[in-house]
Amino acid sequence: MKQHTVTDSPYGPLTLVADDGVLCGLYMTDQRHRPPEETFGTRDDTLFAETEEQLKAYFAGELKEFTVELRLNGTPFQRTVWDALRRIPYGETRTYGQLAGLLGAPTASRAVGLANGRNPIGVIVPCHRVIGANGSLTGYGGGLERKQRLLDFERGASLF
Fold it and tell me: Which residues are known catalytic residues?
């Protein structure tokens, strides 16, 4: 059974979605590949206390690694990419090519990019930490401005 809530963040409202009590989605407003609202289930503002506390600590600069339980629904390749994203240290970036190489598929940078773009749990699964080969910001479901702000925040720049 799916449930959801909406919580505030410095990047605008975040919609948290759980399937049988396990976080399976974190979506920003106007996010690309955001599922339709009607798929989020009933609203439950009590179910997400742990996730909201960890997000609050992250945005306060007090949390570097999330520990909430996740249910990542996707293809085996997507789940492999999303797992690799979770291993990128806070404040660091990797290129799509580097991720592909780490996965043993050095020519699969485009496939890595497509999987990265379909990440259903933004921020917690840090797809914002992936950049282009030349260091440029490329594609981010939440928008390039949000991606830049998240990267700046993690590197110690002011959030605002």
Answer: 127
